[in-house]
Amino acid sequence: MSRSESPSESFLFFYRDASPFSQWYPASFILEGQQFTSAEQYMMYGKAQLFGDHEIARRVIEAPHPRQQKALGRQVQRFDNDLWNQEAKNIVYRGNHAKFTQNPELLLVLLATAGHTLVEASPTDRIWGIGLAEDDPRIHQRATWRGTNWLGEVLTQLREDLLSQV
Question: NADAR domain spans which residues (predicted)?
Answer without folding.
Answer: 13-162
